[in-house]
User: What shape does this take?
Amino acid sequence: MATVLAIETSCDETAVAIVNNRQVMSNIIASQIPVHSQYGGVVPEVASRQHLEIINGAIAQALEQAQLDWREIDGIAATCAPGLVGALLVGLTAAKTLAVVHNKPFLGVHHLEGHIYATYLSEPDLQPAFLSLLVSGGHTSLIYVKDCGEYQTLGETRDDAAGEAFDKVARLLQLGYPGGPVIDRLAKQGNSQAFSLPEGKVSLPHGGYHPYDASFSGLKTAVLRLVQQLEKQEQPVPVADVAASFQDTVARSLTKRAIACAIDYGLNTIAVGGGVAANSALREHLQAAGAQHNLRVLFPPLKLCTDNAAMIGCAAADHLNRGHTSPLTLGVQSRLGLTQVMELYKH
Assistant: This one.
C-alpha cells in the first residue's frame, strides 16, 4: 500500500500531509484566514506569496510528525486543478521538484476528487458505488462515485456555490469573512422559522424543475431585500434570526436534492465533503432525512471538511496503488471537470 507525501495549495490553506493508503500519518495545515479576513475575501496574489513562505517548513514538519524519511515515501502528490493558478503553481512546483530530487513518482490530483476521498479517511471500509455531495466555497455538486477516477455529475449549482452564498450573506450582515462558521454560530441563537426565504429552483426548458440542480443567487438576493426592507422601516435587523433562516433554507435545499438523487439512482450511501460539510444544520437535516429513508449518511471529521492535504494524499495513494502516475510536464488549471480526472495520469 502506497505512502504518499501530498501538498494542497489550491486556495488559502498551505497544507502538507503524509498518508499511507487510508491512514493519516501527518497532517499539517497553515490557514491564511487571518491574512485574508482584512480584505473580506481571498486575494490570489497574497495567497501565492503566503504559500511560498510557508511551504518548505510545512513539508519538513509533515515528515517529522510522521517520523519518516524520504526512503519511506513512495510518491509525491499535489493538487493541480481546479483552484487559483498562482497558488496551485507553488504546490505543484514543490511536488515536482521533490519527485525529481528524490526519484519518486509524481501525481497531480483533482481538488474535488480529494474532497470525495476525505470520507475514506474516517470510513476506511467505504467502497463505491455511492453518492457524493460536495459543498464548498467554489463548488456544489452531486456526484455518482463509480470507482477511483470514475465519476458522473448528476447535479450542480447554476450560480453561486453554497459556501459562496454563506460568504456573501455574512458580508451583507457585516459578520466578516469567512461566512460559514460565523453564520453557523449565530444561527444557534436565532429562530430558523423567523423568515420564509425562497429555496431557489432551476427551471427545465420544457417546464418543471431540475430535480438535483441548485441555485443560491435568488436566496442571497432575498436576504438582501429583507435587510433593506427592515432598514427602510427603521427596524433593527435580527441578525441571528436572518442567519438561522438563511442557513436552514440552504440545508433543506441541499438535503432534498441529495436524498432524491440517492433514491433515484439506487445508492444507499451519501458521503458529504467540502467546507460546508462542517455546517451543523446540514449535518442535522441530512442525518435525519437519511435515517428516514434508510440511507447511510457520512460526514468527514471537521478538520477534513475544509481544504487539507490528507484527502489529496488519500486520492493519490489509491491512484498510485493502481499504477497511475502523472507526467512531469503536467500544468495547473483553474477549471477542470471532475469527469476529466484520468487525463491527469496520461503520459
Remarks:
- The chain is about 40% helix and 20% strand.
- The mean pLDDT is 94.
- The first strand starts at residue 3 and ends at 8.
- The two ends are 23 Å apart (CA to CA).
